[in-house]
Every structure is written in C-alpha cells, then in structure tokens.
Amino acid sequence: MRRYGKNPDEDDIRVRPNRKGNRPRTSIRPKHEDALEGFVLTVDRGRLTCLVEGRTVMAMKARELGRKGVVVGDRVGIVGDLTGDKDTLARIVRVHERASVLRRTADDDDPYERVVVANADQLAIVTALADPEPRPRLIDRCLVAAYDAGLEPLLVLTKSDLAPADELLETYSMLGVNYVVTNRDELKTGEAADRVRESLTDRITAFVGHSGVGKTTLVNALVAADRRRATGRVNAVTGRGRHTTTSALALPLPGETGWVIDTPGVRSFGLHHVDPSRVILAFPDLVPGTEGCPRACSHDEEECALDAWVADGHAEPARLYSLRRLLATRERREGD
User: Fold this and answer.
1) Domain membership flag for residue 223
2) Is residue 118 scored above 90 in pLDDT?
3) In a domain, 11, yes or no
4) How large is the C-alpha radius of gyration of the chain?
5) What is the pTM of this model?
6) Hey, how many other C-beta atoms are within 10 angstroms of the C-beta on 62?
7) CB atoms < 10 A from the CB of 32, how many?
8) Which phi and psi angles does 169 have, rounded to 5°?
9) H/E run at residue 322
C-alpha cells in the first residue's frame, strides 16, 4: 500500500481516470447547423441511400434521433462524409416535417402502423384488368389510405388488351378519380409510359399495386434505363405475382420533371389507423352536411346528418354511397 506522508500534495496522489470517460453528460444536443438537406431514396437494413446536392450518399440514422423512423421520401438533415465515395458513411441527424404520410397496417386488427412513403402528393394505384383479375376491394382500400393521407389518387389500369376497362371504371366514376388505361403493346412501344407520365409531371407519385399487375414494369418504362428494377411473372396456376420489389425506391423521371416511388407489391392493405373524419375531406360536396352529425359519427349510422343533406338535393346520392362503400372497407377484410 502506497503511503503519502502526513501532508500529501496533489502531485503525490494519482487520480484514477473515469472508465466511462471524463466528459460530463449533458442533455444539450449539437445543432448541426452545417447539415445539408438530403432526400431519402431507399432504405435497406439500416443503411439509407440519400440524394445530397446531386450526389448519392450512403448514410445511417444518428443515435440522437432515437426511435424516430426515416423512410423513403423523407427530407433530412445530413452531416459527415458527403462525398458519396465508396465505403463512406454519413449520418442523418434531422428529419424535416413531413407534408404527407402514406400509412398502412398489415391487417385491420393490427394496431402497428407502417409508413409506406413520406412527402408524396399522389398515389398511383396500379391494377391489371386480367391476369391477375382486378381486386376492387384492394383498390377501395388504397383509395381510403390515399384520402386519409391527403394524396390525390390516380388509377392506372393495365392489360386492357385482355379485358375491357368500362365496368371497373364505372365503379369509380362518382369518385372523380383520374385514370389511365394501358395495354401490353402500348407498354412495349412506350405509348403507355408517355400517357402516364403526363399525370406525374412536377409531382412525387407513389406506385402501389398487387404483385403481377405490371407496376414495376410500368415504372421501368417511365425512368432511365440505368435505373430499372428486376421484374417477375404471374404464376399460371395461382394467378399471383412474385414479389420482385422488396423495398421502396424513389426514382427521378427523365429531365428531373418529377419522382416516382416504386413500392413492394401488396396482398393486403390494413386500415386500422384510418380516421373517417379525414376520409370525408376528399368529398368536399358532403363535408358541409356533416355539421349536424353526432360526435365521432361514422357517417353510416341512423343519426348521420348526411342522409338529410343528400335528400334535400345538396349532393348526389351516388356520392354518399361511394363514401360509405369506401368507409365500409375498414370493417371488412380485403378478401370478403
């Protein structure tokens, strides 16, 4: 045992360093005023590919963000190595406020929300008219999710050479949804992509659809050749497509005239998170009629004021029917 005598001074006593570091803990976080703005293109196993000042940069989420999620379409603050060189890694230190959030749940009884994309302003719902057969209930659910998120829906019907589009379009005529009808020959010649592109200019459009409907094939026709993704075929026995797109990816349109976000094929679109009061905002002709509705009205009950509003001639009955049909999808499973 070391002895220091009767009157040791500070030079005689060795102070053990703090094993956890000598820097005192603080709740003050760096402001990262030098952070540049980035746009998240895709997320893969904790690594985020971002566009920063025209360069593609690989990044990870900073620990200080905690459990705050970062998804495709997010606009973020990013610091660190922003050269975009191989084996470099930057840090996302800030997620800017989102203009819109497209969400879904795995099932209707699943309370866990999954953010599909952020900051999109349009949702392209792609469905085939045959091979595989159209699924109106899934279309309805995507429409509800779009209205809930404040996105404008665009219905894209493919393979019209195999079946007519009239009957399906009639179902959605009273909703006033924009649509584009294409066939396989037009897809090969580029005519289909040209028509769809007219509805995408200066917008961020998320593409959703059931596997095998030609969603990724269409996206590939819209973007530059070096940006294209792998595609699959429809199983002749089950009529189902194979999930060739496993993660969302934002792709620029030629000439930087807009963005398309290709998302993985979906077999269900849960609506556990949807609030009917947000969906009805997509029906501006019906909104004034809800003033007499009881609190938390589902808009499909005896006390709903919309029935009297329509009966008095303020709106078309078909519009109320369309609203209630969409809201009813929240209560029925997609396969019912």
Assistant:
1) yes
2) yes
3) no
4) 26
5) 0.82
6) 21
7) 15
8) -65, -35
9) helix 317-328
Name the residue range of residue 81's domain: 36-95
* Identity of the residue numbered 328: A
Residue 255 in domain: yes
| Residue 305 confidence (pLDDT) above 80 | yes
pLDDT digits (tens, 9 = 90+) for 164-212: 999 999 999 999 999 999 999 999 999 999 999 999 999 999 999 988 8
Q: pLDDT at position 237, please?
A: 37
Q: What is the pLDDT of residues 146-173, one digit of tens each?
A: 999 999 999 999 999 999 999 999 999 9
Confirm if 42 and 58 have CB atoms less than 8 A apart: no
Torsions phi, psi for 259 (to 5 deg): -130, 145
Q: Report if residue 161 sits inside a domain.
A: yes
Q: State whether 230 and 127 are in the same domain.
A: yes
Q: What is the largest CA-CA distance in the chain?
A: 102
Q: Do 229 and 112 share a structural domain? A: yes
Handedness of CA 116, 117, 120, 124 (dihedral sign): negative
- Residue 120: pLDDT over 60: yes
Q: How far apart are CA 278 and CA 295, in angstroms?
A: 14
The DSSP string of 10-77 is TTTSPPPPPTT-SSPP-SPPP--TTPEEEEEEEEETTEEEEEETTEEEEEEE-GGGTT----TT-EEE
The bridge status of strand 47-52 relative to strand 55-61 is: antiparallel
